[in-house]
Amino acid sequence: MGEQPIFTTKAHVFQIDPKTKKNWIPASSSAVLVSYYFDGSRNSYRIISVEGSKAIINSTITSNMTFTKTSQKFGQWSDPRANTVYGLGFGTEADLAQFVEKFREVKELTRQLEANTNGSTSDEPDPSSPAAVISQMRSLHARTSSMSSVGQSENDRRSLTNSLPVSESQVKYENDRLKIALAQSSANAKKWEIELQTLKNNNARLTAALQESTANVEEWKKQLAAYKEESARLKKKVLEIEQGGQGVGGDTKVLEEQVVELSARLQAVEEDKQSKAKEIDSLSSRLQDMTLKESQSIQLADKIKILENENKQLKDQVKDLEIEKDMLEHKMSRETDDMTAVQQQIQNKMSELTTLQGKMSNILKQSADDNILENSVL
Known about the structure:
By secondary structure, the protein is of the alpha+beta class. Helices cover about 70% and strands about 15% of the residues. Strands 1, 2, 3, 4, 5, 6, 7 and 8 form an eight-stranded antiparallel β-sheet that branches. Helix 2 (about 130-245) runs antiparallel to helix 3.
């Protein structure tokens, strides 16, 4: 039975700098899949993340591990077997909360699976003996001399801490600037979307009008063709009558009246034809305008796509800056905790020194009393 994934999420992966043990080194170029796996053959759980062909996380979970949430979207845990500390930067607080909850569940299951635990005991010497006191004094001198180097490193950390707010302020400024640019870009995209929709509506109306006008033009062409046929027929009839000469008699006047009437109708048809030709020219001009607007709408659609890509890039930059900000806050918190721990160590060593001085005074006083007693006996 092989390993089976039981939970998967996406996060930016970091590892602690092995030299400084303080700075974070990005282990992934972008957000990658991070999964919990269960190995049924070994009854063990692992956290695994792969980018490309490289495994950037391969951490076996034990009951002694603890996942620490250091900011709203960042958390870490230490892996003694891998001799490193892993950090995960999530896109949302909900993703981090789900990962923490799953870590607790897996840790509890691991604790139940671990059958044997090893304990260790230690024997401590009597601290009240003179030899122990002298030994403690020597070790205290050694530790006190090492405190000077600790003080120097503390000064270095203070100078680093003083420089951190500047970096954080720069990140905040860049974050705010990108948010403003993102808002402006979104506003422009919405404005162009409205303009594109208006153009589409106008395009639809012009298309409907063009289709209607085209249908009317076809009908007018049919009527014009019929008029032309009738006009040709009447002209032919007039010619036949004129060639018939005087024999026609009284019918000539009637025919002349018909010719006049037909000529008037023919003239009306010609005028109607000219009117329809002008209307066709107008429709052709409107069609050209519509074609131009379609071209403009295509250009606007391309601009909207470009703006959407820019918005996506700006959102990714904002997300990366938020993660960097969380890392800086976490780093400042670690530096503050380190300085507090150093101060506490100094106080503890001073208290030990005071206690040992008191013990030495008591021993010297007792030795002096013993010498006085021996002299008095002699």
